[in-house]
Amino acid sequence: MFRNPLRRWLKGGQYRPTVMVKELAERDRRRMLKHFLALERGDRLLRFGSYLGDEQVAKYAQGIDFSRDMVFGVYNRVFKLVAVGHLAFAPKETKKSATEKERVAEFGVSVSKSARGLGIGSKLFERAAIHCRNNDVDTLYMHCLSSNQTMMHIAKKAGMQIHRDYGEADAYLKLEAANPASMLQEAVEEQVATLDYALKANTRAAAKWLDKLPGRKNKL
Ligand SMILES: CC(C)(COP(=O)(O)OP(=O)(O)OC[C@H]1O[C@@H](n2cnc3c(N)ncnc32)[C@H](O)[C@@H]1OP(=O)(O)O)[C@@H](O)C(=O)NCCC(=O)NCCS
User: Fold this and answer.
1) Kind plus residue range of the DSSP H or E element containing 62
2) Interstrand relation of 139-145 and 103-111 (parallel, antiparallel or unpaired)
3) What pLDDT does 16 receive?
């Protein structure tokens, strides 16, 4: 039987589509904001550690510094941003850290409700970890509520050390140094995701253009 290499097969014949993780930039900020604003109250609490209203969410999205931090995203088939992972870098003295490196990184992630359970959150985490390795950061932190069972599962699966305290959990992962394979993996993943992004963006633009043609009745 022919098996599409872009689909990962699971036990029982179900499949998960391959997740294309793309580095986000200034041009994606508006869609990032839309993604964050669409998170329900409970999810905002899990994502930001406290309930943020729309104004605070907008401030957070506006404040992301793409020149300092790395933001990853996943676009769905119709070019909707369905997941955002924010890897924030900080000098090590701002964290109690045993690392010898100059910087540490902290990761925060959210996946739209409609796209959960497809491996997107895990893939964003993996991509953040490999990016740290390739950028001389050997300690990746994550802060979340200990009641966040899905995130706890992802953290444990990744081998993170988890410290729970008063309903909150601090998790960290010690990373190996970069090697040619980790460098190549990140570069290839980004190249493939860039092609995928361009294809989806162009298809979306063409669909919008066709939709505006006079006399066109069937909306795409
Ligand atoms: C946490 C979150 C990012 C996960 O995204 P996702 O794309 O659904 O995650 P994945 O599909 O990669 O993985 C989910 C894993 O958790 C498991 N899981 C789901 N619900 C679970 C639960 N209640 N208890 C334990 N594990 C659970 C799934 O079985 C899956 O495990 P597997 O890959 O070993 O099969 C998403 O739920 C989310 O955005 N939540 C709100 C914001 C948030 O909590 N952010 C994290 C704070 S930093």
Assistant:
1) helix 54-63
2) parallel
3) 74
Integer Cα distance of 53 and 57 in angstroms: 6
Nearest ligand 1 atom, CA 115: 7
Interacting residues of 121 by C-beta distance below 8 A, sequence separation 6+: 83, 109, 111, 150, 151, 154
Architecture of domain 17-205 in this structure: 3-Layer(aba) Sandwich (3.40)
Given the CA of residue 149, which atom of ligand 1 is nearest to it?
A: 24
Nearest CA to ligand 1 atom 43: 47
The predicted-structure confidence for 137-178, as pLDDT tens digits, reads as follows 999 999 999 899 999 999 999 999 999 888 899 899 999 999
79 torsion bin: left (phi>0), alpha (psi -120 to 50), beta (else)? left
Task: Tell me the average pLDDT across 93-117.
Answer: 85
Q: How many Å separate Cα 130 from the centre of its chain?
A: 13
Q: Which amino acid is at 99?
A: T
The identity of residue 194, as a single letter, is: T
List the residue whose alpha carbon is closest to atom 19 of ligand 1: 150
